[in-house]
Structures are given as C-alpha cells and as structure tokens.
Design goal:
The chain is mainly beta. It has 4 helices and 32 strands.
Length: 461
C-alpha cells in the first residue's frame, strides 16, 4: 500500500500471490485500501525489482480495494446485485473514484495523480459472480538495457575485425590503432550494421592485416550512474592465426584467400519470381563493370539477352543483387567474366557461369487479410517458425495482401506502433510506459500452392 514509484525496488510487498503456468493468480484477504500492483519474475528470489534482467509488469493506476464500495458502484450503475450474479460474467466494472469528499494526495499516487478513475475496462473488470473480487490483467516485459558496453570483439578473418555493442552506438564513437597510426591514415573501411550495434572494420593495407595481432582503443558514449553522458574507452586486442595441419595445406588455403569468391544460386537451382538474384562475396565491393556481365533468357534452347540491373546491398558491403523481370517457370543463364566485380583488395575472380530456372507462378499461395478497427499505426508481420517473412505497415482498415508465398505454415502478428518508430518497443517502469500492445491472428495458416486464403482480423487494442 506504499504508492511510490520506487517501492518495487526498495520494499517487500505487503501481499504476494503466485501465478500458475497459464499466468492466473490471486491475492486474497486484502484489507480495504489503495494499492500499487506489480508482477515480477524474481531472478534472485528477494521479492524486489533489483536486477536489469528481471521481468516486470505493473498496473498503471492505483487500485482501490473496497468490496462494499465496488458493489455500490455496480448497483448505482444499474448492474444487478449479488442475487443476479450469473449475468455479471464478463461485464466491466466502472472505474472506482475516491470516496466522496476526498481526493488522492500526490503522496498516495506516487506523484502521478493516478488512481482508478479513468482505468479502462480491459484493465480492471469483474468477470465472475464474486462481487468481492476485482480482476486485473498485467503484461510482463523486460526493460530495454540502458547500459552500453562492448559485448564481443573478434577477428575471424585476417582482414576483418568486428565489435559488438549492447546498444546501438551513437555518432560520437571513435577508434585508433595502438600504437598511434598517422593522423590522416584511413587504414580501415568502416561499416555499421542496420541496428548500429555491430561495427565491422575491414583492414585495407596488407602491412596491417598480415600482422597476427592488432590493438585498437575504442571510445564510445555511455551513461554514468547519475544518468550523464560520458565517454568510455576500451582497449581491444584482435588476434588471428591460420589453422594449419601441414605446410602445404596452409599454403593452399592462403593462396585460395587471395581470390574474390562469388556465390549465388546453385546451378540448376530455382529463383523466386518476386526476389532479386543474390550475389555474395567474401570481400567488400567497390565497383561493377556491367559490360562483363550477361544474363540470358532461354526459351526453346535459344539464349536471348535479358535486361537486368546490378544493385549493391545498402545493408552489406559484401552483397549485390541482379534485378530482372523474371518469367514464370523459365530457364536463365548468368555469365560473369573476370574483372566484372572490383573489390577493396583488387583481387581477381574467376568466370562465373551458372544456369537456373524460375519458380512456376502456380507454386505460390496468397493470403488476403481483411483488417478492421485500426486505430493507430500497426505493423503486420507474417511469420514462419518465429522468423519474420514479410512485414506491412497500415494505418487504416482494409485489405492487406501477402502474395508469392512459399507453401508452408504462417502466423500473423500485429504490433501497435504507438510511437510510430517502425518497431516494437518494450515498457519502462519508472517512465510509466507499458510495452506496445501485440496481437496475433487466432489461428495459423497453412498456405497451399495456387490458393488464395481469406482471413479477417478485428483489432482489440
């Protein structure tokens, strides 16, 4: 019954209940009072929210527990009394205001002014015949980490170093070689992952990457214990050694790494109609020579030049795409001469000559999703085995079409993007932020070839 925000971190609760495997819980024999309610997956079994990895859920208002007053509210609102309890199942309780003549003090509400006035029906409701019980739902979440640090550093390739951070790095990070390199020496090619939490550094000069050990001093922005931004500096050692079982094998491996390797669809493989053809490389690309690349469409065993574009991948320095207007169930040939791809280390590559076919358009299925009651921006994720296959963003009711789907089982997830930043955000207890609501389509969908699946979803959040 201490309503301060800090109480889950500093005080053992007055009443405790334990949930079953389905999340149902009860806390019994409460005396009438105002209460702060929270749930906790207690990592160290001390009944306190004191570990950054602990999972918490909280009711975002103070809860008034007073059976007589709750019953009077029901009766005054036209609800049947305890003699007609069967009709009460699932009916919402009107949020309970303070008793007449008394407002909650700032101390009672933890400074937020929050009480059960204005508490939505889906948070506080009576769903059974017991008029002495109040039913609530709590959503558990893990807060986003606020501690920035380097989680990993590695050098799996002689020419490449990788640094992984616990949080996305800001623009105010830097690194330098130990001992110092010349002031304007651009000896590294830098690439940040799309999430800005992994930094890849490609070593340009052979005099550097041939060294077994390199040392970097990395500086980046963190918050100190007072919440003030300061600069942290770590010194990292990157060591690479060839794995050799014999002199000849080691020389062969070393020689093989001196070529640019190109991998794409396997010969006689099948290319999806709605996708570009991937080209993967072992080193960063710098330029393309289209005149040395040919794509042929092969109807009736005759090779016909096919228009195409070669596109660098905006998220990867070692990937490009062949974009073309693929025809259903057709044969193609990709031919690439030496010199077609320029790379960071000016390494040559062999001729690439690969034949493949495209999928028949009747191989694919389609989901037509009719969406109703869209009240805010919603991210719709089509998922397969917990991996996001496709995503759409909608802001109004209507039909959402997922086409060119490989026959398999899918689930559909709906993220209510309340702050419009394009991703799901967890909650923050001290900021009184609940995690962004998530809903799922009630059933999974087994997509079949050459079949349109009609689905409907009425959003509740």
């Amino acid at each position: 019954n201490d309503l301060r925000d800090s109480v889950p971190m500093t005080e053992i609760p007055l009443y405790v209940g334990r949930s079953d495997e389905k999340g149902n819980f009860s806390v019994n024999n409460l005396r009438p009072d105002l209460y702060k309610v929270f749930a906790l997956k207690d990592g160290n079994y001390n009944l306190l929210y004191d570990l950054p990895t602990e999972v918490i859920g909280f009711l975002d208002t103070a809860l008034r527990v007073d059976a007589e007053f709750a019953r009077s509210i029901l009766v005054s609102s036209g609800k049947p009394d305890s003699a007609e309890t069967d009709s009460l199942v699932g009916d919402p309780i009107t949020a309970v205001p303070p008793p007449p003549g008394r407002d909650l003090t700032e101390e009672e509400t933890g400074g937020t002014g929050a009480d059960t006035t204005g508490l939505s029906a889906d948070t506080l409701f009576q769903e059974g015949p017991d008029l002495n019980s109040i039913y609530i739902d709590l959503v558990l979440f893990t807060e986003a980490s606020k501690i920035q640090y380097i989680t990993d550093s590695r050098r799996d390739d002689r020419r490449r170093m990788e640094i992984t951070f616990s949080l996305p790095v800001t623009d105010s990070f830097s690194y330098r070689k130990v001992p110092d390199a010349p002031e304007n020496d651009s000896w590294l090619l830098e690439h940040l992952s799309s999430g800005r939490d992994t930094l890849t550094l490609w070593i340009r000069d052979s005099s550097d990457y041939k060294k077994d050990t390199l040392i970097l001093q990395v500086s980046y922005t963190v918050r100190d214990t007072a919440g003030i931004f300061v600069t942290a500096t770590d010194t990292l050692q990157f060591t690479y050694r060839e794995r050799r079982t014999g002199r000849e094998r080691g020389k062969a491996k070393e020689a093989a790494e001196e070529k640019l390797e190109i991998s794409t669809i396997r010969s006689r493989g099948q290319q999806h109609l709605n996708s570009d053809l991937a080209l993967n490389f072992n080193f960063p690309l710098t330029a393309f020579n289209d005149s040395l690349i040919s794509l042929f469409y092969i109807p009736d065993s005759v090779e016909v030049p096919e228009p195409f574009r070669i596109l660098p991948d905006s998220m990867s320095l070692t990937r490009a795409w062949i974009s073309a207007n693929w025809k259903s169930a057709s044969k193609y040939r990709l031919f690439m001469l030496p010199g077609a791809i320029a790379n960071l280390y000016n390494l040559p590559h062999d001729t690439l000559d690969v034949s493949f076919t495209t999928r028949d358009i009747e191989y694919y299925g389609q989901i037509n999703l009719n969406l109703d009651s869209v009240r805010n921006r919603v991210i719709i994720q089509l998922m397969n085995r917990e991996q996001v296959h496709l995503a759409r963003v909608v802001e109004s009711d209507g039909m959402v079409v997922f086409s060119y789907l490989t026959p398999q089982e899918y689930t559909i997830k709906f993220i209510h993007d309340m702050n419009g930043n394009g991703k799901w955000d967890t909650g923050d207890y001290l900021k009184h932020l609940q995690p962004e609501p998530v809903e799922f389509l009630g059933t999974s969908i087994m997509v079949r070839s050459n079949w349109e699946h009609e689905e409907s979803m009425r959003l509740e959040k």
